[in-house]
Amino acid sequence: MIHGHGGNIYQVAKALGCSPREILDMSSNVSPLGMPAGLNATLEKGLGEIVSLPEVDSGRLRASFAASVGLGADQVLAGNGTTEFIYVIPPALKAKKALIVGPTYSDYADACRAFGIEPIFCPAREENEFEPIIDEIQSKLAGVDIAFICNPNNPTGRLIPAEDIKSMLSAYPKVRFVIDESYLPFVPDWETESLIGAAADNIVVLHSFSKIFGIPGLRLGFLAASLEIIKAFEPFKRPWNVNRPAQVAGSFLTSQESFVKETADFVQKERSAFLGYLKGIDTLCPFPSSVHFILFKLNADLNASELCSRMAEHKILIRDCSNFHGLSDRFIRIALKGHEANRRCADILKGVS
What we know:
Mean pLDDT: 94
Structural class: alpha/beta
Number of strands: 13
CATH superfamily of the largest domain: Type I PLP-dependent aspartate aminotransferase-like (Major domain)
Number of domains: 2
Strand content: 15-25%
CATH class of the largest domain: Alpha Beta
Shape: globular
CATH topology of the largest domain: Aspartate Aminotransferase, domain 2
């Protein structure tokens, strides 16, 4: 359950006999621009606060985040990353039947299975460049209690327009839609596509600070929903679930709109540049993406595990996607970094793929 994610720089560094800092990790979907300026100083200033317990319910952090997205603090929960919420959604919403729109993040299925639910899947197809088909999703919603949709999706990078999701919310009021928007801030003007303020009682929105602000090790995410749904999570809340450094960082990060915009703008330009570097490499077929990571299919005899191993020998990690439900050992995912790092990755890919 806890294996199969990207970002295992420590294991690779140990195998190569080098420092983890020497590894270029393009397997983990964090911001290519790293952390916002001022965050380190904010954390250093607040470090003395770890001698006391953190705020038990992250009240001030919740209020700060809620205000930044136009909600009331009582409509928001703060957690130890969005993964904390994913694993309590099935019991909190008393789900018996779950639909997962894929291929996608494995923890949705793992969370369901942890509570005795074998999910059904609605996989987007390669022949449609992994664009989800709304009619196909709706055809599987009969009798479903919860539907997980990662939007934009990991690992495909495809974005379902907000209006299409809103139409499903309206057409299927008895289905609780879990919309994971962890990667949406990488899309320019992301607020126009966000459902975090949707006026619907059957939606749960997950929002991550780990990805867009480059702090996956700090663990910080949010859940937003109607008051009725928030109440359903009450029995599953734990005191002090967000540590004090994460609370301090989160309050600072809710005001970093300019950094989010800068990151999204960089991603759009750099994604085009990176694909340009790889143009003409027939062994790699990229699929359209709205965000900073790109799904590729391998068109040669090389499989994903072999290519990942060859790249690791050059101290570059890319993501083997064979453990995503609906994908085979012919798929990899690459998350963009800075311009020079991306160019270096492209140059090495030309030689080993």
